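Handout, section B. The chain below has 129 residues.
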Amino acid sequence: MSYIALVTLVVRDYDEAIAFYTDALGFELVEDTDRGDGSRWVVVRPRRAGDGTALLLARAKGGAQNASVGAQTGGRVGFFLHTEDFAADHARMTAAGVRFLEEPRHETYGSVAVFEDLYGNRWDLLQPK
């Protein structure tokens, strides 16, 4: 069966993006390959994702791509990070400087709080019921 392997996230700088996703969010760096033309193939994913969907961090090139950094979903939550321990991950991420836009909510579908990545893209930290 087919599945989505990678989702591109346009970033300002490879190294600052790698640092945020690995240090603040706890992702693992899967690949960082120099492509020889000043660009790199950089892949990160949540540590427990196995072969699940990963992020391709692509450095912006040119005006249109630079303008999309942090606004790839038009201000909507565009990424959903599932957790098995909402309280622990929320506390760890807060201590690492992740900016949450709201207090945790406990909805019928689970515990959730919206946060921003280092560029302003909105994410849900979500522990489904």
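Note. Residues 14-24 form the longest helix (11 residues). Compare this with the example in section A.
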